[in-house]
Amino acid sequence: PCPHRHPMKHIAIVIVNWNGREDTLECLASVGKLEREGVQLDVIVVDNGSRDNSVSAIREKFSKTILIENDKNLGFAGGNNVGIIYALKQNSDFIWLLNNDTKVHNQALAALLEANGDIVGSKIYFAPGFEYHKERYAKGERGRVIWYAGGIIDWQNMYASHRGVDVVDTGLYETRTKTQFVTGCSMMVARSVFDRVGLFDEAYYLYLEDVDFCVRAAKAGFTIVYEPRSIIWHYNAGSSGGAGSHLHDYYLTRNRILLGFRYAPIRTKLALFRQGIHLLFGSNREQRRGVVDAFTGRWGKQYEPKQNNN
Predict the structure, then answer these.
(1) Is the alpha carbon torsion for 259, 262, 263, 268 positive or negative?
(2) pLDDT digits (tens, 9 = 90+) for 37-47
(3) Mean residue pLDDT across the chain
(4) Residue 1: Cβ within 10 Å count
(5) Of 13, 148, 261, 295, which alpha carbon lies 20 to 30 A from 66's?
(6) What proportion of the chain, given as a percentage, has pLDDT over 90?
(7) Cβ atoms of residues 117 and 217 within 8 Å
């Protein structure tokens, strides 16, 4: 063997599962096909108290997977933190957080490692048939519609959005580039980042914890990179009812206020406060509740998602 070969990198993949048995089994099957030369790979599934026999199905089909069972639903932030803590104790060099409702290209991991960022995100496509606007796309375009090609934070209006979303990929997003945030759907993080800035903030429970984490990392001087050669397909919103659901309305309303009050300029904070007052008199019950909880400091899990048995 060549004496200049890099030492083995120790990578942990952390996948949180909550009543997503079929999604998680498909995700694990695709992870099993990853190119992993020069890599020692731990695959960790954190189960958030599922009631759909996920745990026994994963044990049976993927016996080498490390399975951590939480006795209740700790949300996206809490579930990932359990996996991250375990991986750090195993001395992982990098931790790749991956949604359970994804399928990975076999080069996805190798490309993330080559990007050399402290936090690196993949190019993520909607899985075919899971686009927001299904009627827009020809059959041949399915599977090439972008869900995420970099993250943009609009601090004036306090919105975090995905670059390229809903666009058929014609090669506009082929350049590795620094970005403002990486989505937790596929986020590889160097150990040094967790050592310096800590874990996901469980105040969020669900939604925007990935943005908060990236903001803290950027403030600490870490590089955040979008890597287009790492490709993932996302079966969008498999576990939370999706955009426009009650759950989505509640947590996004509340957590947007939390994120803005923490990091946004003063003008944005005032605008968020005014918007909050406006929503209090609106007709959307979940948004009203989100505002009340934000203004009274009720964070973490305050709203139970509907049971989802795939």
Answers:
(1) positive
(2) 999 999 999 99
(3) 93
(4) 4
(5) 148
(6) 89
(7) no
- The two tokens of residue 5 are 């070969």
Structure tokens at 268: 């944005």
Q: 177: Cβ–Cβ under 8 A, 6 or more apart, which residues? A: 150, 225, 226
Q: Which of 175, 38, 34 is nearest to 105 (CA)?
A: 34
Q: What is the pLDDT of residues 284-308, one digit of tens each?
A: 999 999 999 999 999 999 987 665 4
- The encoded tokens of residue 62 equal 């993927």
Question: How far is residue 295's CA from residue 287's CA, in Å, rounded to a whole number?
Answer: 12
- Distance between start and end Cα atoms, the chain: 47
The length of the chain, given as a count of residues = 310
Rounded to whole angstroms, the Cα distance separating 131 from 106 reads 22
Closest C-alpha to 76, from 283, 245, 251? 251
Q: Among 8, 10, 1, 87, which Cα is nearest to 44's?
A: 87
- The span from the CA of 196 to the CA of 189, in Å, is 12
Phi, psi of 112, rounded to the nearest 5 degrees:
-60, -40
Query: 75-97, pLDDT tens digit by residue?
Result: 999 999 999 999 999 999 999 99
pLDDT, one tens digit per residue, over 1-35 is: 555 556 799 999 999 999 999 999 999 999 999 99
